[in-house]
Amino acid sequence: MTPNKSVENADSEIETAIPGTCDSGWTACWKQRTLPEKLLLSAISIIFIGFFVAMIVLVEIYLRLEDRLLTAGNKSFVVTDDVIPAGSLIGNLTREPSMCVTLECVEASARILTALDTKADPCDDMAQFACGGWLERQARTPGGKDVVLVLENLQASVDHQLKLMLESPTKPDEIKANDKVRGYFASCMADRQDQVRHASVKKAVDELGIIAAPSEWDPAQWDLTELIGKILNVNGAPLFDLVVQVDDRNTSRYVLSVTLPRQSGIVPQFHSPVPRDLLHHLDILRDKKERHRVKRQFLGMGDVQLDNHDEFPDFAIFESLNHPDPSLELHNPFLPDANFLQSIQQLSRDARASAAFRLMQDLGAFNSFSVASDYRKEESDIRRVISSVDQLLPSDRDRKLKQQSSKILNYYTVDLLQQNFGFINWPVLLRKTLGKNVPMDTTVVVHYPDILHQIQAIVNVTDPRIMHNTLLMLVVRDLALELFKAPPGMDKWSFCIQAVKGGFGEVLSGIYLQYFTPAQLENYRVKAEEMFVALKESVIEMIQQSSWPDSITKVKALSKARNLKPNLVAPSIFSNQTFLESMAAQVNIDGLDFVASTWQMYRLFRRDFFDIYSKPVDETTVTWQMLAYPMIANAFYLQHFNSMVLPLGLLHDPLFSLDTPNYLGLGTLGFIVAHEIMHGFDNSGVEFDEDGVRRNLLSPSSQQLFQQKMKCVSNQFSNAFRTEYSINGTSIVLKVDGELTLNENVADLGAIKAIVATQTRMARERGPAPNLPGLNYTHEQIMLINAAQAYCALITPQAYALILGMDEHAPPHDRVNGFMMNLPDYGRIFNCPAGTRLNPKSKCSVW
Ligand SMILES: [Zn+2]
């Protein structure tokens, strides 16, 4: 029996089962019907015929319209300049928005919908409304972290793509540099090489000097300047760092700067709002039961054997979270940046110092101290000097506030430097690092003269032998140790990608770009440029409409906005093979020895870094080699060039898609672009003119009004965002620092206005963009929801406390509600009555 046959049989069985059928002809059958049956059948027939005629008419109309559209050419398809999806013809012609049903649109709809918490009220808490569903899912995900951010996930996915590319074999047509970089990555990833790494650290430190016991010390042979010079040349900065930066007063040249000590070589370049190692320490402390186990594990860092007598920093630090200083209760219920943050950072440094001592003991560096008490005294003397230097470091908050002002620009000459800070022979140090004599009247910027004075005081009262040993131990603690193991809370592969970015950023950029065809890159550039131009136009309109600046200020601000330059996607240097080859030509990668390769890389990095000092400033070099790379998922505003950087790494889902309606991309990537543009007009940005020279845009009277506007923003954020947490059963109120976050908030306030204006203009000029399936919101609403969803973040209370103290951005939840509540159109867009939390009667506005 065939399957068809069985179907036929089944059908006929059904037919015979229907009651009232007749088998003797249609006329006879009709006569057998009752009156109601006849009426019913007539009605059905009329409806059927009517439907048939209507279909013919519709098909005719459709064919005529299609004909008109095709002859009109592509232009009529691109009414909205967005994707014209299948089935959109009739929608466009009737001037109703069409429905975008491409895969990208369906995916975007699903992502937006599943992240929502429709029970939350967008008039009260937009961040919860936009992210509640996402948060709930993240919280249920096993193996949760302290911080999960949408933006950080984007960098992680770019990094993972880089990992796969570095793990794949080098193809025959690739440049040699790619092979070297793959070798370097592999040497970082390789396990069980402790012996090799130990030997390399010993060799690297020995080249700087040996840990000297009193009997081995010859004061006549020692020179602090010489040792500091050697350490600077391997990228160490134990007492201060010497860097090259663009001169604020003349942006066509570089200037030397003496700045703060630096406590790592690779890790700080990692873009993260919260240092993972600090969170790791907080986590350790949170779970008291874990103390002992974690103590053992942590002291094993560097695979050094545990010492029973080793001291572990005081666990009482975490308890300070539970007992905020009552004297601060009135205006600041909890100050995370005060004792708590400093303590947690010191805890991390102390733990690393302990590991450094164990490592150097293991390597036999302290063998000359054969008597245990001698060793203990030596260690405690060195640790005392280390901690007095550590304690001089400003808090992250102070450092960031200073960076935002001109307070770190203290101009000295080499001569003045020598007179003020004679503990170093500066002409000699500069000759050793720059490789040439530097005239005594050369300008040197000192970022923190007070701290440099105090460092000088420490050097002056410290026994030179102890100082010498301290500097070597700082090299081990801050540079060598991190090469043994990824820092706590960071995956090894992610650390290794970071190391490659740090050492071979240019070659890695070339590898990343290989993933895209030239046509794709051009497409990205065109789309990004279109977005940049549209947003820049909106910012220009906003400045024109601002009523507070006087006419001179307005002219200057407008010319700054018009002069703003974009650096989009990636520059052409990263496809120049000769250039890429030259970047790795002098490095020899020992596939087994990550430490030795990194040390070599450090030397070359510092040499190239100091080399540029003698050259005129080249914008492409500074922008794409010193500050950003194409694979960075972040955007930047560069004050010195009045330019913004939008690297390819950011132009990906969920922030950006080439194939979704423009209001989606405006909400996410557009917001970021506008935010960066607005940094040109924040509290620091107004100090730089259209060419990036430090010349204030504001006339004195406008300056006064501008400062009132700044005050509005900083007060509002300090007062509006207080979050109550319960930690270990105690309730703690944490609040946003309006002063620290001021510039970011000002940039956000302008950005959210700019994207609404841009969307309105685009809809007016191009007609309605297509709708997204299943989303019952207006395009403006979807754009703002999408803007909020780019900042969805799951953050534990301890991470929240760290963000408040260290990050110049407000925690994402507060940040989103903060920029929404100041958007003049927010009440209209979400139908929020005036006086609701996110449509307050008094809003802050700057531009
Ligand atoms: Zn910013």
From TrEMBL:
Residues 634-846 form the Peptidase M13 C-terminal domain. Keywords: Hydrolase, Membrane, Metal-binding, Metalloprotease, Protease, Transmembrane, Transmembrane helix, Zinc. The chain crosses the membrane at residues 39-63. SUPFAM superfamilies: Metalloproteases ('zincins'), catalytic domain. Its cofactor is Zn(2+). Residues 122-260, 357-570 form the Peptidase M13 N-terminal domain. It comes from the Eukaryota. Belongs to the peptidase M13 family. This is Neutral endopeptidase. It comes from Daphnia magna.
